[in-house]
Write a structure and sequence with these properties.
The chain has 343 residues and is of the alpha/beta class. The protein has 2 domains: 229 residues, 3-Layer(aba) Sandwich (Rossmann fold); 86 residues, no CATH class. It contains 7 helices and 14 strands.
Length: 343
Amino acid sequence: MPGRVTETPAEDVDGVVRVLVYHDMEGLTGQSDPNTFRFAHPERYAMGRAYLTGDVNAVVAGLLEGGADEVHIVDGHGSGNPDPDLLLDELDDRAELVSRDEPFDAYVDLAEAGVYDAVAVVGMHAKTGSGGFASHTYTLGIEFILNGMPVTETEVVGYSWGRVGVPVIFASGDDRLAADLEGPMPWVEMVTVKTATSASSAEPRPVDEARADLRAGARRAIESYRSAQAMRLGEPVIAQLHAVPPADLSMLDGVPGIDYADQRVTFTSSDFRGAYDGLVELVTVARGGYASVMGETGRAMAGPAFAPTYSDALFDRWMDFESGRWSAPSSDPAERRTYHGFH
């Protein structure tokens, strides 16, 4: 069974060339500070939103100039901001933001035959271990490996949309992302907006120059989108989650039925969606490793009092539950809101 296969894109069924644009925030023009994509740092994040909106507008303009009839945008980042990362009052008004009344997984829940003709990704990052600016896959300390191939999030998007014959035609980010995509997705029109010098630093290209390339690259991508390839994984899919600091999977070592070795858990699924869902569930387990950083932080802040205070809190919770004194904290009804992808 091949690791992956590529196919000619599905035919346009409605005569409308419709493109879905995913945006992330780590591969933006002008950006060299990791705090610009973190909602927890308001002043720097505000700069990141401006970088993001400028990049997305350049790509939207290029897609429309190249022949797209409609351009829709979905949040593929997850900054923690309950509102869109994009500055909506500055967004090209010819683009439409995807929204739903219920949470959804932007990578897998939107893929539907006959809706979109092509996908573009903006502001993306390299995969875990690539040495790129903020390089990771899905979240901190996580590597996705599908059919033996470590993948970027751009490839995850490609495999998801490949299920319905839709190709990823355009990507932007740093030089390490460009290298990551060169082998598996050579048809993608890639615009490199900066050179990574470490996970936390980069040398950005001049903004006007890079944005001009984003616009021109998006135009070329949609003009030739029929020559792009839709990509699928060979089935069954062998999926593996590899954890690196701060994530940790060692708590699964020795659990019967779990194929664990050296911070890796491997399983087989009949298809991409099953593999993706299983990996996401394992991410929840691997995030347990984050608690070690929380403990280190707590000890640094509280000093010697942290350990006994934490121990007493655990003990009291146990005693209260067993004695019937404890109940789960009540939560207020969720405020009605709109979802634009990852948040």
